[in-house]
Amino acid sequence: MERKVLITNCADAQGLISKITGVCFNHQLNIIKNSEFVDNAQGRFFMRTELEGEFNGELIINDLEKVLPSTSDIKLVSSAKKRIVILVTKEAHCLGDILMKAYYGGLDVDIAAIVGNYQSLEPLAEKFDIPFHFISHEGCSRAEHENKMVAVIEGYEADYLVLAKFMRILTPEFVERFPNRIINIHHSFLPAFIGASPYRQAWERGVKIIGATAHFVNNCLDEGPIIKQDVIHVDHSYSADDLAKNGRDVEKSVLSKALHLVMHEEVIVYGNKTVVFN
Amino acid sequence: MERKVLITNCADAQGLISKITGVCFNHQLNIIKNSEFVDNAQGRFFMRTELEGEFNGELIINDLEKVLPSTSDIKLVSSAKKRIVILVTKEAHCLGDILMKAYYGGLDVDIAAIVGNYQSLEPLAEKFDIPFHFISHEGCSRAEHENKMVAVIEGYEADYLVLAKFMRILTPEFVERFPNRIINIHHSFLPAFIGASPYRQAWERGVKIIGATAHFVNNCLDEGPIIKQDVIHVDHSYSADDLAKNGRDVEKSVLSKALHLVMHEEVIVYGNKTVVFN
Amino acid sequence: MERKVLITNCADAQGLISKITGVCFNHQLNIIKNSEFVDNAQGRFFMRTELEGEFNGELIINDLEKVLPSTSDIKLVSSAKKRIVILVTKEAHCLGDILMKAYYGGLDVDIAAIVGNYQSLEPLAEKFDIPFHFISHEGCSRAEHENKMVAVIEGYEADYLVLAKFMRILTPEFVERFPNRIINIHHSFLPAFIGASPYRQAWERGVKIIGATAHFVNNCLDEGPIIKQDVIHVDHSYSADDLAKNGRDVEKSVLSKALHLVMHEEVIVYGNKTVVFN
Amino acid sequence: MERKVLITNCADAQGLISKITGVCFNHQLNIIKNSEFVDNAQGRFFMRTELEGEFNGELIINDLEKVLPSTSDIKLVSSAKKRIVILVTKEAHCLGDILMKAYYGGLDVDIAAIVGNYQSLEPLAEKFDIPFHFISHEGCSRAEHENKMVAVIEGYEADYLVLAKFMRILTPEFVERFPNRIINIHHSFLPAFIGASPYRQAWERGVKIIGATAHFVNNCLDEGPIIKQDVIHVDHSYSADDLAKNGRDVEKSVLSKALHLVMHEEVIVYGNKTVVFN
To answer: Are residues C176 and C40 both part of a single domain?
Structure first.
């Protein structure tokens, strides 16, 4: 018996759940878990169905297309581990957390490779026997640098790219190659403190909470669909450095929770938002 | 157009969602929100469906009974406000919070009456024009006292009794009259610090967290199905009194969240547990 | 035996704690609780000392001035209840929470009066026998409206003004009359979603967390020293209205916690920030 | 300039802060951070002072003994990294988290060695070049097994032993060798679900929150002074296995926070409790 996840996203109408689950029933598939959501403001229906059984994928999609609105977006995805390539700069906390969790089974992911624009994290990658590609951005244009990265990344046929504190801005051309497939951790509680030195900004403002945001990257800088956010309480005694140090813990925790959600097909992107079924 | 909530609880089987939503579709009912859960350990299926449309309740139940296993528990309940009677002793924080939230629309509930075994909270009830019944436990047996309360309570035809810091132990006879209809706030994070003086127990143990538990009352003292729990962080500087004072905030917050869930038919009791769809 | 709080705020130097506590010791005052903080970035020392004993206030201040840097800011304040005047518009949740907590002893504060630019909340004020002044902003200029309010407020000799969802912008002239004495609850996690309709902004952005901020009001709109912030987790299923409804709970909780801190002299304002000793 | 932490623990009396900080001032030491606490129920005074300057340790202690009550407990400790030996069984999540945080600077600790009663975690230790000692408990008595461990541990002159999911009960003889120097992570929110299979217990009880507790080990099983606790919210959809899986995240997070506190000399043990200054 196999397991798959069926993701349906279509215009709202009466009877959708009945029709979709009817097709599953006809295919003698067992529903392990089912979640729906209707965005009334946009008249949009979303459903995620975890199925178990013998799958004739083509036939199922076919049967679903017959009963659903013509513009429906239907995906039947395997629940096998997803492959990721991780992009990093110098900071180790997010990469280290992902490597360690993948190692002991706390995160279901297949780390295909790590790409760094500095060599700092190569020793860490080696500990876990993950290929590390050092691709310096120095002495080449942004486009040249990205092209070198793309060449390496495409060789790995990854499902997702994970920016684990990759501190360079990506061009629209790069982003468009991986639509809704690049996951970033923003070192701030978006939309506050967008851009550089968010912890210094937070310190200057005297905030009592700092946070982090994991989001898909699209072509509006810091503005892609948010997957997960979390915060910690801080106080006057935290220097800007203390905020950064404590912020790292939230960053890695939020990134790793977002990865868990995406890896389990629990996140549906629509417009600039996400539906997260968990 | 009316709104109702359909609650189904039956042995798990293939095709249940399809069958139930099929009946809803045949009745031209619109599904506003749907939630399911399968307890694999017990082979039990639970579904909560918010419906909108014209209801022929008897026919719907009838149609559902035809397609569902014979031992299914099917409820179609109105989404009108529930009526509660609140039982209190002397402490005002939980009662006050419920009264105030009901007043400004933060809690959808119809408070029919308040019953107190002391007179302390009568002035508070009067502020909000809620009938207050002072029924002292002094000079009468436990059974006599409860009989007096039952006489008053039954007159109000309440859906639920809420023990808002009612500090007396109820007899099995009383509890049996209101099966899964009595909601209690336990001034502790159950199952820790069961019984008397939980805050002193917590202080003596030096815990770094205190909490509260809202649960249905059954005949195992402090052991009924848990609806909601929450905690706050504390430290060495809290005296037992400070713990109690801060604990009150958690108590009222947890009780009010539990009431919100129960009032919106989001809680299904089975065995000594709850399924909470929210 | 009396209790007072000594607040010291001066340029940092060696021996300050020793000197200040030495003066307290010479006056035979018992230190109940002591908290210090040095802002190294600004070379500033802050200390809050809860004292018990017989106070000769003038002499103590005199003795402290002798041993501290000449620009020190020294306050010896009674721990008696503070008086507040509450300004409201139409929403009841923050006002209701303060009234109820003050009623049952969950908030140590003396509510002198309530001023509203609508009559909506007069019945709530009456329940608790607090004078309510309806001062409409209609048909008069902003300055005229504020002058009317000032005339009423000054009659009450309040320590603090509390804006409990007072939905009008105050002029610099008004704010200057009450320096660091106006406490506002901002219906957002500052500095995100500043200004109008923050819940709609949050919904459109698809955030997974919403929050509230209590701060002192100064003449930069939404920019005064932050006292307290808190957040709740939300998800895609919340409409903009749901965010607002749930946000109200955070608003009242944050405002009431901020009031608790300010009423107990645990907040020191300096520049655009606060030191919060608790 | 050096940094040290002065820990004072004595019977409460007037003037203690003044006397202690006076001695520091006389030694021309700069106070970086100061924290005090008086346990009024026990008449006990606690103070932690972070100092910077040139230290004549013996003379300072001497001067303090002159001015403090005769039974005072005075410690002047270096702020150098502490050395730990970690004891493990088979589970990798706590060990992995400590190793990774120590690697990237998220935890200030010097890991001298790892001792395991299984070989499972040796490869993980090797990745980080930490000596791993496999000391099986099989085929020997509890005392013999512990003696073998003690022989190895004592060779490392560790400040603390960390039980990172070490699943064996220690004898009083072992515990007495390391008084208040053994830190354990208990896979439960103490005092709930003490003992074996806490996640199954939690699942059977239907709790809505699970947690973990880091505590010093003394000779009352599961009853030593609590250092840190935390919880996560769960619901009916978590199986006992899901609770365990999610519980692991809390366990490692709580253990690592407790280590941070202990490593920075922020925890004072007295009786069966802790004062935690942070």
So the answer is: no
| Cis ω before A131 (30° cut-off from 0) | no
Give Cα separations from A211 to B33, B112, C251, D258 (angstroms): 31, 44, 19, 22
Structural contact between residues C164 and C88, judged by C-beta atoms closer than 8 angstroms = yes
Nearest by CB to C276, from A228, A235, A273: name it.
A235
Taking only residues 9 to 38 of chain D, the set having a beta carbon closer than 8 angstroms to any beta carbon of chain C reads: 14-15, 17-18, 21-22, 24-25, 28, 30-36, 38
CATH classification of the domain holding D51 = 3.30.70.260
Domain identity same for B97 and B228 = yes
**Which pLDDT tens digit goes with each residue over A136-184?**
999 999 999 999 999 999 999 999 999 999 999 999 999 999 999 999 9
In this predicted model, what pLDDT tens digit does every residue of D130-189 receive, in sequence order?
Answer: 999 999 999 999 999 999 999 999 999 999 999 999 999 999 999 999 999 999 999 887
Sign of torsion, CA A124 A263 A159 A156?
Answer: positive
Strands A132-134 and A109-116, how do they pair? Answer: parallel
**What is the predicted ipTM?**
0.94
Beta strands A160-163 and A82-88, pairing class: parallel
- Contacts A124 to D, Cβ<8 Å: 103-104
| CB–CB contact D38 C28 (8 Å) | no
Together in a domain, A62 and A115: no
Question: How many domains, chain D?
Answer: 2
Q: Write out chain D residues lying below 8 Å of B276, CB-based.
A: 208, 235-236
Q: What is the extent of the structural domain holding D7?
A: 2-78
- Phi, psi dihedrals of residue A93, rounded to the nearest 5°: -65, -40
In C235-252, which positions are buried (b, 16+ CB within 10 angstroms) versus exposed (e)? ebebeeeebbebbbbbbb
Q: How many other β-carbons are positioned within 10 Å of the β-carbon of residue C42?
A: 12
Q: Are residues A73 and A145 in the same domain?
A: no
A217 touches C: beta carbon within 8 Å:
no
